[in-house]
Amino acid sequence: MKYGIVAFPSKKLQDLANAYRKRYDPHYALIPPHLTLKEVFDAEDHEINEVAKALKQVTIKHSPFELNVSKVSTFAPVTNTIYFKVEANDELLALHKDLNYNFFGEEPEFKFVPHITIAQKLSSGEHDDIIGQMKMTGVDNSEIIDRIHLLYQLENGSWTVYETFRLDEDE
Which is it for strands 2-7 and 35-42: parallel, antiparallel or unpaired? Predict the structure, then answer.
């Protein structure tokens, strides 16, 4: 089964992201707006309890972190993905490191660029038409993230929460 670890932003930021995602993200109906902390990895049913225990140990070590979003950016020309750029901070980077190195699944293939996707799988023309407008509209949001979520993928491709973990909470 496929799993991933994410942080969900506030409803306010999700609503703003979804205003774009409804139109420009084919994954809109499969998962809410999120910050990916660990990319998709495979685990067998009998392994998931170990993953959850290890994730609990990681979250005990980490405090809630500040999620600051201050601009719209793009991964073009590598991919025509547009996103809300999340400013990296020490707490977020340390949490990402603990979830990706010496943890379940593979180590990341790409450098960690914290972001919340708002548009993807666009043609070059679509991307070029909307990126300027999105950058001008902009975004300015700051909030505290105090929990992360272990998700699993259903047969229809959608994602659902397997378990939620509070940061810096010992039982």
Answer: antiparallel
